[in-house]
Design the sequence.
């Protein structure tokens, strides 16, 4: 590869996990893993936010990445109905002020409908301010993903943990909704990357690992040993996502 590949993991998390033994979940442990697998940067949520209390976990992720320029914060967000987080517009404003470049939602775990009226203000504010939203496929269903994308056509919606045997469901969705992207974390169909790039272009895929629950080597190997050309690997590996992150932050080169 003529230009240095700087992988950006868009689907990582800090903190201990309530159901999996993932170690300390500390920023130092994350940096060590990034070094081991040749990943330059990661966008990280916190398990306190994803599995317990978003407000507390979001504050915690900001504190834990403050001195780690290779880690970018991701906030776990909710519909504004119960008042657990600020209203949608204020939430986006606070996120951007804190250097947050990505939201993630967990509709199944947190008990709301991705495409429902309660979530609409959040999606609208994110779309208006260019804040991408990541959702794991097991947390919702394809109908809700399509309905949310149709109702908010300016929203960048990233779907992760797609698994395998989903390409027939995905192809029509990707054709109709140009701002739906797929994350490579557990995108595990045979030659799925090659098929999707050939059909839709490398700009529809972003690199993610699902670490620490998933071994990062899975996503790294699948991308680096793919049959894609160097330009496509770089686009998926980080170039596209860096262009989408709602806020900029100093990045560092990794030898």
Sequence:
């Amino acid at each position: 590869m003529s230009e240095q590949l700087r992988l950006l993991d868009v689907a990582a998390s800090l903190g201990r996990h309530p159901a999996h033994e993932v170690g300390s979940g500390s920023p130092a442990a994350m940096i060590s893993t990034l070094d081991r697998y040749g990943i330059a940067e990661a966008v990280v949520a916190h398990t306190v936010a994803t599995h317990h209390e978003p407000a507390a976990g979001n504050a915690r992720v900001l504190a834990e990445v403050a001195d780690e320029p290779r880690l970018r914060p991701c906030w776990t967000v909710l519909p504004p109905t119960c008042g657990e987080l600020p209203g949608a517009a204020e939430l986006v404003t606070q996120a951007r002020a804190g250097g947050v470049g990505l939201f993630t939602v967990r509709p199944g775990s947190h008990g709301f409908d991705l495409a429902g009226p309660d979530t609409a203000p959040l999606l609208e504010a994110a779309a208006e301010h260019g804040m991408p939203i990541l959702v794991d496929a097991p947390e919702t269903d394809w109908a809700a993903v399509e309905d949310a994308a149709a109702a908010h056509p300016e929203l960048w919606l990233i779907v992760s943990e797609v698994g395998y045997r989903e390409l027939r469901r995905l192809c029509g969705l990707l054709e109709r909704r140009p701002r739906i992207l797929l994350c490579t974390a557990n995108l595990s169909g045979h030659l799925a990357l090659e098929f999707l790039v050939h059909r839709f272009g490398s700009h529809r895929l972003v690199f993610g690992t699902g670490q620490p629950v998933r071994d990062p080597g899975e996503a790294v190997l699948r991308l680096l040993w793919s049959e894609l050309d160097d330009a496509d690997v770089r686009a998926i590996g980080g170039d596209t996502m860096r262009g989408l992150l709602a806020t900029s932050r100093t990045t560092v080169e990794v030898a």
